[in-house]
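1st attempt posting a full record on here, be nice pls
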Amino acid sequence: MAPGEQPALWVAGFAQDSIVDGPGLRLTVFCQGCPHHCPGCQNPETWPFEGGRAVLPQEVAAMAGQDPLVRGVTLSGGEPFAQAGPCAALARLLRARGYELAAYTGYTFEELLAGTPEQRELLGLLDILVDGRFVQAECSLELRFRGSKNQRILDVPQSLARSAPAWTADPRWVGEG
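the predicted structure (as tokens):
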């Protein structure tokens, strides 16, 4: 890799103008590869690490910039933290451009805090983390921006400051009342 070149991110696909992966219009990046294999997963085609296509972080950032209404980017999967280094490179670019950054992960905040340096770096670049494996028995269509009741919508800066999970109070994420 040449100096300054970013590592490629393996993606299964993108959802432009998504309204289901966080508040407002968002670009959602579906990472390829997942070690969790949660029964009932809505994206089992993202499980194999051999699939998808390589995309440079700069290309994804440019894609987000093509739509002036997009204010946030969500990393989903697959498992973004299985590609923490390339996802962190993308997150640095997006943060510099002022996007709200969120990620869905099958890991818990506590697991990521004890994870690899790359996982901790990616965690530190996020605004919101929806954590925990999808549990089909706890699935509810009434939940806002999460699939099962065990999953949490965390304010990452607050969680990191406390070294413990802190639910977000942002009404855009948790709803009003």
